[in-house]
Amino acid sequence: MSYNPEIPRNRYDNYGDREWTRLERDAHGELLYHVHLDILKRYIKPSDCVFEIGAGSGRYTKDIVNMCEELSVADISSHQIEVNKEKMKELSLYSRIKDFLVLDVVNMPTMENESFDCVVCIGGVINYLFDKELAAIAEMLRVLRPGGKLIIGAMSFIGASLFYLDGILEEKSLFGIEGTKWLFDTGVQDEEHYPVPSKHYVHMMRSTEMDALFSKFPVEVVERSSAGLFSQSKNDALENARQDKEFWELIVKQEIEFTKLQGTLDCGMNIIYVIEKSK
Known about the structure:
Elements: H1 6-13, H2 18-21, H3 27-43, E1 49-53, H4 61-64, E2 70-75, H5 78-90, E3 97-102, E4 116-121, H6 133-142, E5 144-155, H7 157-163, H8 165-186, E6 188-189, E7 202-203, H9 207-214, E8 219-227, H10 235-243, H11 245-258, E9 270-277
Parallel strand pairs: 1-2, 1-4, 2-3, 4-5
Antiparallel strand pairs: 5-9, 6-7, 8-9
């Protein structure tokens, strides 16, 4: 399937403020938030000029702006950028954001070469890009300074297939076993092979695919992490754990620790890579 920017644009233009509440409304979202936040804190320096791509409504924007010297944010959805602006105003952070931009990561001609110390692209932007995955990575690396860090996240196919197995079984009645085999072979929901009614067409990824993409560039992978491991325990168990403050604090700590183990990389809901551009 070819990349169609209207798919993510329309999805998030019609998403309301759900992107703002997504990471706090349940235990699953909170785990994802804490793992990503831990990585951002460890790699963004106070002197950094940071570019957040796929910033959405600003759930991480509000944190990143307090970690760095200068922050510009961008999203393909003009609606999400407007929500981001409003949230930053509510938090008295608006004046500290250099730019709020509406742009497509696969083509950013207005952004100057080597202008950022860190580029953040988490939450699964890359999953929507299909045949433009390499073009998007090239653009992000183009605007990154030598020695700079790219923090990039993707929806994990293996983790998602474990979590949504009941749904995959139900979808077999729509697409047949050949459609199910296609999904397991490729991680792709597309219009031709796996036309889900929601039209949420994405390429959910394996870590081996992430490795293959970055092997084509002069970069070093400095960290690989999963996120959302304890989500596999399902909602009831996770929400029950969240009700016990002492226990939940331990679960969050263990989530952050376990997601760094090599054997867990594909087992969470997300995969996060930290990439250093060659000097």
